[in-house]
C-alpha cells in the first residue's frame, strides 16, 4: 500500500500544524503544507499530491480563486480538492460543492474525524 500524500493550504500557522500532525499521526500520510493560495499552487504543480485540503478564507488569494486556478492548470486539475471551511450551514457548504470540489469539511474538527471524512470523500481506505 502506498502512502497517501496530501497538501494542506491554510494561512493560519497553528491550525496548519495541528492538521499536519493529525494526518501524519492518525493516518500515517505524508503531508505537504502551504501558507497561501499562491504557495499551494506551486507545491501542487511540483509535487502532485493525492489530495488537497484548501482553506476557504485566506488573504490575497482565497480558496475559491485558488481552486479555480488549480482547475485551469492541466497539471493540477485532476487533484481532488476538499475545502476546509468555518461555514457550517448546509446551504453554505452546498455553494462550495457547486464549485466542483470533491467535498467540504467544517472546522473545527477532531483529528480522527478529519481523517475519516477525508477518506470518505476521496474514497480512500482508512
From TrEMBL:
<protein>
    <submittedName>
        <fullName>Response regulator</fullName>
    </submittedName>
</protein>
<keyword id="KW-0597">Phosphoprotein</keyword>
<dbReference type="InterPro" id="IPR001789">
    <property type="entry name" value="Sig_transdc_resp-reg_receiver"/>
</dbReference>
<feature type="modified residue" description="4-aspartylphosphate">
    <location>
        <position position="55"/>
    </location>
</feature>
<dbReference type="InterPro" id="IPR050595">
    <property type="entry name" value="Bact_response_regulator"/>
</dbReference>
<dbReference type="Pfam" id="PF00072">
    <property type="entry name" value="Response_reg"/>
</dbReference>
<feature type="domain" description="Response regulatory">
    <location>
        <begin position="5"/>
        <end position="122"/>
    </location>
</feature>
<dbReference type="InterPro" id="IPR011006">
    <property type="entry name" value="CheY-like_superfamily"/>
</dbReference>
<dbReference type="GO" id="GO:0000160">
    <property type="term" value="P:phosphorelay signal transduction system"/>
</dbReference>
